[in-house]
């Protein structure tokens, strides 16, 4: 399955999204979804793993001061409250952090976990998602998966260095 995924979705630079009915590559989007294969960690070929890690660097294409945006904020499809086209979401954040850890990028995983945890600490609520550029809570103000991801990341990445959480 890994070989087939790479053959069908890897364009030599990154994974791409294909439209369900046509199979055509979605050209305009610069979505974090194309980087979710990082969850395979060490199972990915080194070249692919390194490209994904490079794209997920802090203050690069996706990782804002508040965590990973679902769409590159410089993309023409980015929308601050565009549901899956911009905000920081807890589930994908956890998946990216865990994938980076599995890929051997522990420091980067910890940095993204710290950004997300700091976002939650300073927000007025554990919102469903957050504006990737301002950190403003959006949608449902009390969401259990947001709190759950916060607890998982805070425990896994900040327990040994609580000073990293800026309260």
Structural summary, described in words:
With 167 residues, the protein is mainly alpha-helical. Helix content is 38%, strand content 5%. The chain has a single domain (2-164), classed as Alpha/alpha barrel (Glycosyltransferase), CATH 1.50.10.10. It has helices spanning 2-9, 46-55, 90-102, 106-122, 144-158; strands at residues 63-64, 67-68, 129-130, 137-138. It has a two-stranded antiparallel ribbon with strand order 1-2. Helix 3 runs parallel beside helix 5 (144-158). It is globular, with a radius of gyration of 16 Å.
CATH top-level class? Mainly Alpha
Radius of gyration: 16 Å
* Total helical segments: 5
Order of helices and strands: HHEEHHEEH
How much beta, percentage-wise? under 5%
Shape: globular
The beta-strand count equals 4
CATH topology: Glycosyltransferase
Strand order, biggest sheet? 1-2
In whole angstroms, how far apart are the ends?
44 Å
Helical percent range?
A: 25-40%
Task: Using the 3D structure, state the CATH architecture.
Answer: Alpha/alpha barrel
């Amino acid at each position: 399955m890994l070989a087939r995924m790479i053959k069908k979705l890897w364009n030599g630079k990154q994974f791409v999204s294909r439209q369900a009915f046509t199979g055509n590559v979605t050209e305009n989007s610069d979505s974090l979804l194309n980087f979710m294969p990082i969850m395979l960690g060490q199972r990915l070929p080194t070249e692919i793993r390194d490209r994904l890690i490079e794209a997920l660097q802090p203050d690069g294409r996706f990782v804002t001061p508040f965590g990973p945006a679902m769409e590159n904020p410089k993309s023409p499809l980015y929308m601050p409250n565009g549901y899956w086209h911009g905000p920081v979401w807890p589930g994908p954040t956890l998946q990216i952090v865990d994938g980076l850890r599995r890929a051997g990028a522990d420091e980067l995983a910890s940095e993204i976990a710290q950004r997300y945890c700091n976002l939650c600490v300073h927000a007025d609520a554990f919102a469903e998602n957050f504006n990737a550029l301002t950190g403003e809570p959006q949608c449902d103000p009390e969401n259990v998966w947001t709190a759950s991801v916060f607890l998982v990341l805070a425990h896994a990445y900040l327990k040994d260095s609580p000073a990293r959480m800026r309260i």
